[in-house]
Write a structure and sequence with these properties.
Elements (H helix, E strand, L loop, with lengths): L1 E7 L2 H12 L9 E5 L12 H10 L5 E6 L3 H12 L2 H4 L2 E4 L3 H13 L4 H9 L3 H6 L22 E6 L8 H11 L5 E6 L2 E3 L4 H6 L7 E7 L3 H13 L5 H8 L9 E8 L15 H29 L2 H14 L2 H14 L3 H17 L4 H4 L2 H16 L12 E5 L4 H5 L6 E6 L7 H9 L2 E3 L14 E5 L4 E3 L5
Helix pairs in contact: 1-5, 2-3, 5-6, 5-8, 8-10, 12-13, 12-14, 12-17, 14-15, 15-17
Length: 479
């Protein structure tokens, strides 16, 4: 049995990762402990070796304890904790270099399914590969080959299902599948469109890219093959634990009571930090500055997640917890650090290069839903650059009924708007499947995009009407 300890500079981040990981658990196959932040009201960001030691001791009643860490001093605190521990307990502990969020989720699923320490570590270390494939990026390192087939087809049975989950087999339904199939005495292989993966690894399931309406087949052989197939079809009938969410998604939304909204035009420029290529004299200091700016942005995202749930719903909150997972990616930080080291440039310029390239990759995707996520990347880019510059993130402050006019708009900006005053958002570009649009609709704010020429020569204060039925802007008559 493997238990986990989560070590983070931020108590909010550590507890948030722990909350996500506990959603992967359906039994008592894995215990979690958290050592995050320090007991200093004025400066709570940091790690404490004593806290780490106590967290390890609290889950040491097992074969192994795997310690998941974020960045910087978290590793030093974990190493110091090992020196402080009783040698018998310290011998059980392994430190893991995997990314904190994705690695912890993958390790939790693997450990809860009864995997040994080596497999749990391997699953955690490969946790980013599914994201890289989905973004069209080459593997960071060649993934270990996974044997996902049978030597022969003798006595192999199968069952096929159609996936109804709107977002496919993402992390929560995939973790349910791993947990349900983990206890059977049978050889099991999942197959989709000729690609195969073992169902004991959440990362391999993600790499199959199983989407809504895709057929998925389980192949099974062994003493409990029939029982495994029955469990698979039963779980699929329950939509892998998401039946309630699917029923909600399939319920037709009520028709809007208002087909038109009116307000005074307010012109809003999308905040866009543009750092120049400035030389730096201290590479390590620039890298530390970037690490701190990322930590502050992660803290912002925790606040935005709580705000989203309080104002609207858990679904809207999930947008910002997803931003947290996206930003808490060691590859992004490491690539920016490489640029700083090679070009002796500022952290701002390096971060802008990394995030602009990622935004470009999203824009080039064929799937319009995924393509619209580029504005989320721009939101994260801008917020981190603002922290590097020591500036606050700009936000509209409007106290009268208004129509906000912009080229595009960040999801975090929409979340913080006063829906009592902002009657509509009208964009020259943008997408009606963006997270900005989704939040606006939840808030009851009319949202029109792709208006381009219709917004030429608008003057602040112009009275505008958004005709939502016809998807058009009605401007005041001249004279």
């Amino acid at each position: 049995m493997v238990n986990l300890v989560i070590v983070s500079h931020s108590a909010q981040l550590g507890n948030g990762v722990g909350e996500l990981a506990r959603q992967m658990l359906s039994g008592d196959g894995c215990k979690l402990a958290i050592a995050a932040g320090i007991d200093d009201v004025d400066n709570p960001i940091g790690t404490d070796p004593i806290k780490v030691m106590e967290a390890i001791e609290s889950v040491a009643d097992t074969d192994h304890v795997l310690v998941m860490m974020d960045i910087g001093s978290a590793l030093l605190s974990a190493e110091t904790a090992l020196d402080l521990l009783d040698p018998a307990i310290a011998a059980k502990v392994r430190l893991c270099a995997a990314p904190l969020v994705e690695g912890t989720l993958a390790a939790t699923v693997s450990a809860a399914a009864g995997a040994g320490i080596d497999k749990v570590i391997n699953d955690a270390m490969n946790a980013l590969e599914a994201k890289r494939v989905q973004l069209g990026l080459p593997p960071h390192t060649p993934p270990s080959p996974v044997v996902a087939s049978f030597a022969d087809d003798r006595d192999v049975r199968s069952a096929s299902v159609m996936i109804r989950n709107p977002n496919g087999l993402h992390v929560r339904p995939a973790s349910r599948l791993v947990a349900v199939l983990s206890g059977f005495d049978a050889e099991l292989v999942l197959e989709k469109d000729g690609k195969r993966a073992t169902p004991d690894n959440i990362n391999q399931i993600a790499l199959l890219q199983v989407r809504c309406n895709d057929p998925l087949t389980l192949l099974a052989r062994g003493p409990q093959a029939d029982a495994a197939l029955a469990a698979f079809t039963a779980l699929a009938a329950e939509d892998f634990g998401e039946s309630a969410e699917i029923a909600k998604a399939e319920t037709p939304a009520p028709a809007p009571l208002l087909t038109r909204v009116e307000g005074s035009a307010v012109l809003w420029d999308l905040p866009h930090q543009l750092p120049g290529l400035q030389p730096c004299t201290d590479v390590l200091q620039e890298q530390r500055n970037l690490m701190r700016a990322i930590e502050l942005t992660l803290d912002d995202l925790n606040v935005l997640t709580v705000m989203a749930e309080e104002k609207y719903s858990a679904d809207i909150a999930a947008i910002f917890s997803g931003h947290h997972m996206l930003l808490d990616d060691a590859d992004l930080y490491e690539e920016a650090c490489r640029i700083i080291s090679e070009k002796y440039c500022s952290a701002s310029w390096a971060w802008d290069s990394v995030m602009t390239e990622l935004s470009k990759q999203y824009r080039q995707l064929n799937d319009s839903y995924l393509q619209a996520r580029y504005i989320d990347i721009e939101d994260l880019r801008n917020r981190t650059l603002a922290h590097l510059a020591g500036k606050s993130v700009a936000q509209p402050a409007i106290s009268w009924p208004a129509i906000l006019i912009a080229d595009d708009i960040f999801p975090s900006t929409v979340l913080q708007l006063d829906a009592q005053q902002i009657k509509g958002i009208c964009l020259r570009a943008g997408s009606d499947v963006s997270h900005s649009a989704i939040i606006a609709r939840e808030a009851g704010i009319a949202f029109l995009c792709q208006q381009y020429d219709a917004l030429k020569n608008i003057i602040p204060g112009d009275g505008l009407t958004l005709d939502m039925a016809q998807k058009r802007v009605i401007r005041p008559q001249a004279g």
